[in-house]
Design goal:
The protein has 225 residues and is of the alpha/beta class. The longest helix has 31 residues. The chain starts with a helix and ends in a 5-residue tail after the last strand. Strands 5-4-3-6-7 form a five-stranded parallel beta sheet. Strands 1-2 form a two-stranded antiparallel ribbon. A two-stranded antiparallel sheet has the order 8-9. The chain is globular. It has a domain of 138 residues: Vaccinia Virus protein VP39 (Rossmann fold), CATH 3.40.50.150.
Length: 225
């Protein structure tokens, strides 16, 4: 029993060290880009252990600042993942910068639920805000069950499943943050924003190159759905 306790302590300390090093790297990367990480975003990053949402990954992989972690594969293709910390940090910073007064007390819709980003959003909207997270995958909301309970905010959180979950006009949101690549912006997302609401979405682009003619063209690819 004594040996087991020692191993658990060492493992925990290693995870804490890797966690701290990851956030330090993200702060340094922001500085190299001429950015300043918002204090509340840094606090959220330091408060939420990423490895809880990547249970099949080694600790070193869970705390890589530059890589996503695949959580589900469909054949040889990636089905679900927890986004790379650098991208999450930048998107949360952009969202907070664009929202007058920051995210505290705001109502947020997250599209694409890996659990990790939702946990940090909950830190940012506390103590009276809410986070609703939706995913097309029936297993997508399972990581949310790893979120520690947090009183009122926990009770107000909702997890919806299904292809059209994000299109249900259940309420208006101060922030909609999209954790999946999108070819276009569905009108339903805009319709669910409050009057001064913010939408943060990583739009996908299609790049065409003509090497012989030295041509280069980049255009947004529109979804047919």
């Amino acid at each position: 029993m004594e040996g087991e306790s020692t191993r658990m302590s060492v493992d925990t300390a290693t995870g804490e060290d890797l966690h701290a090093a990851m956030v330090d790297q993200l702060v340094a990367d922001h500085a190299e880009k001429g950015l300043v990480m918002r204090p509340e975003v840094e606090t959220a990053l330091r408060s939420v252990p990423r490895h809880l949402f990547t249970p099949d990954a080694a600790l070193k992989e869970a705390y890589r600042a530059d890589r996503p972690v695949m959580t589900k594969r469909i054949g040889d293709e990636a089905g679900s993942s927890v986004s790379a910390p650098w991208r999450i940090a930048e998107m949360l910073g952009q969202a907070a910068d664009a929202t007058d007064g920051g995210l505290s007390g705001r109502h947020v819709l997250e599209i694409g639920s890996g659990g990790y980003n939702a946990a940090m959003l909950r830190e940012l909207v506390a103590p009276v805000g809410s986070v609703t997270t939706v995913d097309i995958d029936r297993e997508g909301d399972r990581p949310c069950g790893r979120l520690p309970r947090s009183g009122e905010l926990r009770r107000r959180g909702r997890r919806l499943r299904g292809r059209r979950a994000a299109d249900r006009p259940a309420r208006s949101y101060d922030l909609i943050i999209v954790e999946v690549g999108a070819w276009d912006i569905p009108p339903a997302w805009i319709a669910q924003l409050t009057e001064n609401g913010t939408l943060v979405v990583p739009l996908l682009w299609e790049v065409e190159c003509d090497i012989n003619g030295f041509g280069f063209e980049m255009q947004r690819r529109h979804s047919s759905s």
